[in-house]
Each structure stands twice: as C-alpha cells, then as structure tokens.
Amino acid sequence: MIKDYIREDLQEFIPYHAPVKEYDIKLDANENPYPHNEKIISEAKKWLEDCNNLRRYPDTDCNELRETLAKYWQVNKENVICSVGSDQLIDSLLKVFLEPEDKVLMPTPSFSMYKLATKLNRGTPIEFNLNDDFSYDVNKIIDLYHKEHPKCVFICTPNNPTGNIITDNDVEKLLNVIKCPLIIDEAYGEYIEESMIGKVKDHENLIVLKTFSKAYGLAGLRVGYGIASKSMIDAINIVIPPYHLNALSQFLARTVLENDAEYDNKIKEIVRNRKWLSDNLQTIKYVEKVYPSYANYLLIKVSDYSIVEVLENKRILVRGYGEQGELANCIRITVGTEDENKKLIKEMKKYLDLPR
Ligand SMILES: Cc1ncc(COP(=O)(O)O)c(C=O)c1O
C-alpha cells in the first residue's frame, strides 16, 4: 500500500485545496480587482512573440528582477531573493532552518501557511494569540520566545485576515531580543506605505517577505520575494530549487514594478473604497462588527452566517471562516472596485428583506 510509505507524521494530512467556484465578483482571495493597463499587456504579448523566450530556461538567479527590486528598495542585489510566490519563501525558510520538532512562533489568527509549512517541514508550530482587538502583544511574544526557544518567529503585518499592523516600536522591541530568524510578512505592505525593510541592514536575522500577488495583480504568475542580509539570503538559496521562477513571471514582475505609478493610484483607490465599504457594511443589521483594516480586505463578524452561501448563490465570493473556532461567524471581504462593492452591499442589504 502506497499509504504505508508516506512519512508517518503526514499519514493523516489533508492536502491543501482551494475550491474552484463560479463567480461574477471575486472578493475571497485579496487579489487586485483592476485589470492591468494596455502597456503591460502589450509588453507581455511582445515577450511571447520572441520565440526564444519560451524555449529557453529562465535565469535561475532572477538577476534582472533582483536588480530592479534592489533599486526600488535601495538595497543591494545580494539582499534580494525571488521565489514562486512568497509561499515558497515561507517553506524554504523553514526547510533550511528547522531540525525535526524545532519550534516556530506564529500569530493566531493569521495566514494558515505558517502552520502548514512548519508541519510539512517537521517543525512544531507554537501559536500566540493576538489581543481581543487583534493587536500584537510583543511582551507576550518575548516571554514565549524565552520559554520556547523557537528556531523561527513569524509576524504578519498587515495581518491576514484581521487587517491590523504591528508598530515600528514593537518591531524594534522584538529585534532587541529575538536572535533567531524573524520573518516579517508584508504581503499587504503596499497598502500602508511603510515597510520594515529599512531595518534589514542592522539585523542579520530579519527577513521581510513581499509579493506581487496582491497590490501588483500578478497572483496568477506567482512572484514573491524577500529582503534580508546576505547571509540570510545565502542560507535560503541552499534549498531553492534551480530554475524555480519562470521567465514570464520574472519579466512581468519587473515590467509592473517599472510602471508602479499606475499601481500606486489603484492602491489609493482601494484605500478609498475600503472606507466606503466599511462605512456601508456598518449599516447592515446582521453585521455585528467591522474590524479596522490597513489592508485590501475587511474582516467582519455577522450574526447570520448563511449570508456567505446567499452571496455565493448570487455569484459573489467572500471568504467565510465557519461558525466555530476563534473566527466563528467572521467573513473576510476583499475590497473590490467601486462597482463590485456597491453590488455586494446591495445583495447584503437585500438579504435583510428576504422572508426567514
Ligand atoms: C499574509 C500572506 N502572506 C503570503 C501570502 C502568499 O502570497 P503568494 O501569492 O506570494 O504566495 C499570502 C496570500 O494570501 C498572504 O495572505
């Protein structure tokens, strides 16, 4: 039986699947709702028309993309590593640093990949709760660090799915104490216009993770990157497979970054739309709470969870967290275009009028 050959600790593992659902409006994965402009699309077409581009292996070291990113963030190229989504960096960090059963500190609720990747790499996840308003309690993290002696610590800011951030001051406090790799995931960092990347030069153990999947609208091409000390980058490179990031992804990530003004405008628009969406969600009777958010999504708590299915039947997808657990009756809604947000609110309001 093939099952008998599976690693013992993975015998009961359920593979990650994201269901493919039909939709008109997709507000469940924090993607960018705006299409790329003509210039980007025509660059992509030109790239495809050069017959060498598809036949040849990509640059395994992603040199040009790393150069563009280094210039953008005012760091050296040796401080940049590119990956197949930032998911790959999360996995690679754990792969290179963890011995079996080593502990990894991570917030809860937060991005599920930290826990999954820790387990897949034979580590032990140690979760710390966020405060009731989802803010970070750094003293709690520091106490846990002293008690558990973890190999890695994750911080997500803005945190997915709660939308809160960690303050600069709190990161300084962590950096004064934590000596193991400290991973700050800024997948939604573009929405707050600030970053912890500036601290990398003074802290060999800090890595900041970023992605092109969210504000830059390239989720389908899977481009992530990390900024860290050269020694941290060299360590991760040990486990990065050759030719990992395909050539089209490298090219388009670079092109998008070179045209970032367009994306900056959309980021500002999303932030404006978020305020409109938040204000309107608060007027709906069965919405008990709209948590403040610094990202391109809002976490809400509802008194009637069936709204998730009702919206799905209207071909509007949102991310529900079920009726049990720490996020019971919570729903994460990606901020869409003005039009998408209006349609969502309209359907959510209509639901109130339905006979129960
Ligand atoms: C906090 C956070 N980090 C990382 C990722 C992974 O992004 P990528 O598409 O770059 O793998 C996500 C995706 O949802 C995320 O929410």
From TrEMBL:
GO BP annotation list: L-histidine biosynthetic process
Gene: hisC_1
Recorded family membership: Belongs to the class-II pyridoxal-phosphate-dependent aminotransferase family. Histidinol-phosphate aminotransferase subfamily.
Protein name (record): Histidinol-phosphate aminotransferase
Positions of post-translational N6-(pyridoxal phosphate)lysine modification: K214
Cofactors demanded by this protein: pyridoxal 5'-phosphate
Organism encoding this protein: Vallitalea longa
Keywords for this protein: Amino-acid biosynthesis, Aminotransferase, Histidine biosynthesis, Pyridoxal phosphate, Transferase
One function term, GO molecular function aspect: pyridoxal phosphate binding
